[in-house]
């Protein structure tokens, strides 16, 4: 990758860790903070002033921490922005409504870049973490996306690690602690409500139906699986590896869910993205339409973005909790 386009600001330095296993402790480094992130050591000499968030998930987390004025750009907006962030979001520079490119990142003259997924940091994405480090730009990938470095943790656990890390990186640890406190309360309330429920409904999380009409459902490693654990509502596809995967309609019929959680994705423009379109497809299918969950309208709709790891994931958890209570 060419160095041209970056101003080399000595705000952050990054050293790629070569060890196969790292812990999650953050230590005060000489002259700043040292954080271990997905196998990479990040030394923050000064809080970033020109951060780029590579996706909507990361952007909303930074906005929740009150960092609007330190965001130099955002990308990959996949759904409606949460009302509490809308005014701030509209003031940000949208570098690309889809996936951010290395050239667009360079043009933003960043001192820090963060993403919800490790795959962004590749030659086909914004550049490898080593390449960015050589340009004086530190990078951060969501801890949710690299569970191998945080064994025995859940997706929600790792999301809270992100808040803590961002708090240290940007020098807003108190805000991060408050955000964590509020979200832990939502999780605890959901656990209490589920413990009082007599039934354990079997749930399918239907993300979309856009690829040749096949359903895209939650597997056993993403936020929906963790929501099912918290809510004592088993994920019907908990034996399916990965966060999300394409399955056949006959597989959904065979598992006969008692509740279907629908991801609403109104901004992508593909049939099967909007929740209402999903319901139409379910009712039109000769086999799926006969499932009790479909015949009795046992649907719970949540914003699709909130089924991915973001600051709004607790809102989806709360909506599903309330929906399960309503449906009985």
TrEMBL record:
Domain of life: Bacteria
Position of the signal peptide: 1-19
Keyword Calcium: no
Entry-linked PROSITE patterns: FE_B12_PBP, PROKAR_LIPOPROTEIN
This protein's UniProt keywords: Signal
Domain Fe/B12 periplasmic-binding intervals: 50-328
Record flagged with keyword Isomerase: no
Recorded family membership: Belongs to the bacterial solute-binding protein 8 family.
Protein name as catalogued: Iron complex transport system substrate-binding protein
Annotated source species: Herbihabitans rhizosphaerae
Organism taxonomic ancestry: Bacteria, Bacillati, Actinomycetota, Actinomycetes, Pseudonocardiales
């Amino acid at each position: 990758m060419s160095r041209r386009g970056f101003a080399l600001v000595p705000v952050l330095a990054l050293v790629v860790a070569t060890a196969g296993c790292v812990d999650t402790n953050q230590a005060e480094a000489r002259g700043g903070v040292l954080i271990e992130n997905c196998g990479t050591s990040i030394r923050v000499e000064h809080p970033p002033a020109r951060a780029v968030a590579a996706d909507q998930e990361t952007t909303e987390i930074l906005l929740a921490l009150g960092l609007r004025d330190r965001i130099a750009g955002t990308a990959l907006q996949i759904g409606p922005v949460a009302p509490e962030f809308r005014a701030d979001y509209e003031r940000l520079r949208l570098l690309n409504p889809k996936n951010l490119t290395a050239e667009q990142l360079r043009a933003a003259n960043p001192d820090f870049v963060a993403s919800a997924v490790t795959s962004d940091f590749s030659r086909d994405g914004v550049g490898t973490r080593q390449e960015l480090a050589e340009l004086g730009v530190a990078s951060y990938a969501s801890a949710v996306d690299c569970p191998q470095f945080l064994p025995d943790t859940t997706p929600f656990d790792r999301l809270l690690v992100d808040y803590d890390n961002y708090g240290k990186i940007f020098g807003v640890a108190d805000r991060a602690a408050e955000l964590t406190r509020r979200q832990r309360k939502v999780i605890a309330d959901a656990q209490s409500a589920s413990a009082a429920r007599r039934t354990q409904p079997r749930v399918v999380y239907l993300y979309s139906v856009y690829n040749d009409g096949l359903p895209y459902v939650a597997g056993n490693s993403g936020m929906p699986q963790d929501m099912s654990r918290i809510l004592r509502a088993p994920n019907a596809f908990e034996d399916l590896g990965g966060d999300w995967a394409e399955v056949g309609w006959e597989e959904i019929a065979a598992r006969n869910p008692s509740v279907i959680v629908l991801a609403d994705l109104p901004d992508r423009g593909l049939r099967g993205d909007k929740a209402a379109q999903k319901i139409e497809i379910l009712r039109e299918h000769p086999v799926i339409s006969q499932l009790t969950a479909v015949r009795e309208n046992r649907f719970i709709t949540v914003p699709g973005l909130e089924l991915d790891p973001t600051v709004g994931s607790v809102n989806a958890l709360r909506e599903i909790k309330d929906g399960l209570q309503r449906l009985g």
